[in-house]
């Protein structure tokens, strides 16, 4: 049985000065904390969904073949590919919570929240839209960060494996519709550098 632990977030947000879209989760899962990067649970569909939304290949997980020789991806290479996927498409990624008390990976158990210093992103990048990965992230954004940023978050269905009622295909459709932006004639996918 999991017990409450006070946990610090432990790793940096992903963004650069060109980010226009910010996606927030609630707090890293146990597997994400172990890997020191976002959405580390292979069952979580976040990386598959984002890759489909921006029309790119899914970044390899640690140990998956990569490149022309099919050499296994290291954890550092996997994280680097995921960072590049986001940065190249103008997407910033962080969590609403900097630290909290939590049991395992359960969002429902979160208490004693210290919100993230989101201004690190919003002062450095022209964030236009915020999307919350799931209802908990949306509720926490509204409670702690919406007033500080002046940006409301659109809540999207969670990519977590706990959200089994949403297939990956449905998630891709919903996330694509939400993140779609028009950059003039023909439009473009989120943050595409055209």
Write a brief structural summary:
By secondary structure, this protein is of the alpha/beta class.
Q: In words, what does this structure look like?
A:
This protein is an alpha/beta fold and 194 residues long. The chain has a single domain (4-179), classed as Uracil-DNA glycosylase-like domain (Uracil-DNA Glycosylase, subunit E). The protein is 30% helix and 21% strand. The protein has six helices and nine strands. It has helices spanning 30-35, 46-54, 75-87, 119-122, 135-149, 168-179; strands spanning 4-8, 21-25, 65-66, 71-72, 91-95, 97-103, 111-115, 129-133, 153-156. The strands form three sheets. Strands 5-2-8-9 form a four-stranded parallel β-sheet, sandwiched between helices. Residues 182-189 have low confidence and may be disordered.
List keywords for this structure.
194 residues, alpha/beta, Uracil-DNA Glycosylase, subunit E, 3-stranded antiparallel β-sheet, 6 helices, 30% helix
Q: What is the helical fraction, as a range of percent?
A: 25-40%
Strand order in space, largest sheet: 5-2-8-9
The CATH homologous superfamily: Uracil-DNA glycosylase-like domain
Taking the alpha carbons of the first and last residues, their distance comes to 50 Å
Question: Which ranges are low-confidence, i.e. pLDDT below 50, for 5 or more consecutive residues?
Answer: 182-189
Label the overall shape.
globular
CATH C-level label: Alpha Beta
Largest sheet: 4 strands, parallel
Question: What would CATH call the architecture?
Answer: 3-Layer(aba) Sandwich
* CATH topology annotation: Uracil-DNA Glycosylase, subunit E
SS field, number of helical segments:
6
């Amino acid at each position: 049985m999991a017990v409450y632990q006070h946990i610090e977030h432990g790793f940096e947000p992903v963004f650069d000065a060109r980010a226009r879209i910010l996606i927030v989760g609630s707090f890293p899962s146990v597997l994400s904390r172990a890997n020191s990067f976002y959405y580390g649970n292979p069952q979580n569909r976040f990386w598959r969904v984002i890759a489909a939304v921006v029309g790119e290949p899914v970044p390899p997980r640690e140990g998956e073949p990569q490149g022309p020789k099919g050499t296994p991806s290291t954890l550092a290479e996997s994280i680097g590919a995921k960072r590049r996927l986001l940065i190249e498409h103008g997407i910033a990624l962080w969590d609403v919570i900097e630290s909290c008390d939590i049991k395992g990976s359960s969002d429902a158990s979160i208490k004693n929240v210290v919100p993230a210093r989101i201004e690190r992103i919003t002062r450095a990048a022209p964030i236009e839209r915020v999307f919350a990965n799931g209802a908990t992230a949306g509720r926490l954004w509204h409670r702690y960060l919406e007033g500080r940023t002046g940006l409301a978050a659109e809540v999207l269905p969670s990519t977590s494996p706990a959200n089994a009622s949403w297939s990956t295909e449905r998630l891709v459709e919903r996330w694509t519709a939400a993140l779609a932006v028009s950059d003039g004639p023909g439009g473009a996918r989120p943050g595409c550098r055209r």
